[in-house]
Amino acid sequence: MRAKPSGANVEPHAWEFKARFRRHAFGWKSQPAITRIKQAVAEIKKVAKKDVLLAAEGAVAFLERVSPALEQVDSSSGSVGTAVNNAIAEVVPIIANAPADAKTRDAWLERLFDAYQDDGIPYIEALGDHWGTLCGSKEVASAWGDRLIDSVRLSWSPDTPWGFFKATTNCLSALVAAERYDDVLAVLELAPYKMWHYRQYGVKALAAKGKTAEAIAYAEEGRGRNDSPVAIARGCEEVLLSAGLIDDAYRRYGLQAHACGTYLATFRAVAKTYPHKAAADVLADLVTTTPGDEGKWFAAAKDAGLYDEALTLASRTPTDPKTLARAARDYAEKQPAFAVGAGLLSLAWLVQGYGYEITSIDVWDAYRATLAAAERYGGAAEVKERVRKLVAAEGAGERFVTKVLGKELGL
Question: How far apart are CA 69 and CA 149, in angstroms?
Fold first, then answer.
């Protein structure tokens, strides 16, 4: 990897993303903006493989431009904000690790701070959490802490009702990076309210001082109505893991800390963080956290190769018939017994009226996948009879599955 020596001027470079990220460059639709964000990050990362300093300059330019370019985009779904946050997480290390001299880094930080202050929506708010990292050294971080701390104190003063200082997070992040832990805790004592967004830095400070129990207590004390329990669990888990208390971290926070958008993603995140735990144990523990939703863990069990457990879960509470039918189709060759079980369960839940926007095609898919797996398993006639009995037992009402498969099954 080629990197210019400290103090070298960055060569002019024709960044493609600059032309795309003009003020109000994007209209109402979010997907074109998300695509361009990903392309910009990919371009910066590609340059970083050859020239880290140049890539860092590009990353700063991107962060300056991204918020003004997105001002007119519909951000109600949160997808654009997520894309920007992901981009920030990817380019911050490039800026932080670039071999820039003091003058260059100072210039970058000033540009980023101006962009952060002007961020109206805001889209690059998460940059404040990375400020200490962006400083690149304890000395620079300490200087920024000094620059901002008086404004934080003033905003939290009893004489400043409803005071707010936008760079409070930047200050706390810089102080932690500068290892000025007592200053972090002292200034947080001035806060008129307990908010995890700020108190997380107190947790980091206490943990860095080796006060693990105090850090956990500080985090728990700061739980507020509007604070994310997942974020707090994640912070506490990090403290315990850093202290080598792995089993304690898993028992107290591991399951909640990795809650994701899907049950499968949650299982994968927990299993990845705690590789010493048996997959079956992780799954069983997660299932207990969602009583009444056992069937929704089917995909996680299947993904872990826990086929018997997957079928048991899918039989306990309603499970998406389409998911079960896909499993029957995809596993017909490598796990025919499991595939047959998944297919039968798919049809069973369809007969009971479960499923979202079910069509006759979905019913036929489940039926054909089940029989195809049964042929591999060696019991097609028996399975077809079981299907016939399932469908024949369909209750009164629309009897949709009977209408679709009745003739095929001789009903």
Answer: 31
